[in-house]
Amino acid sequence: GATAPAQGGPPAPPEAPTCTY
User: Fold this and answer.
1) Where do the H-state alpha helices sit in 1-21?
2) pLDDT tens per residue across span 1-21
3) How many C-beta atoms surround the C-beta of residue 7 within 10 A?
């Protein structure tokens, strides 16, 4: 339930089968 890291942090956990762009 997190968006893509904008600060170059760790990748968000895959919750929904959608693109995180």
Assistant:
1) none
2) 556 556 666 776 766 666 655
3) 4
CA atoms within 13 A on the CB side of 17: 0
CA 4-9-12 angle, 5° bins: 40
Instruction: Compute the distance between CA of residue 6 and CA of residue 1 in angstroms, rounded to an integer.
Output: 15
pLDDT of residue 5: 58
Instruction: Give Cα separations from 10 to 16, 17 (angstroms).
Output: 17, 18
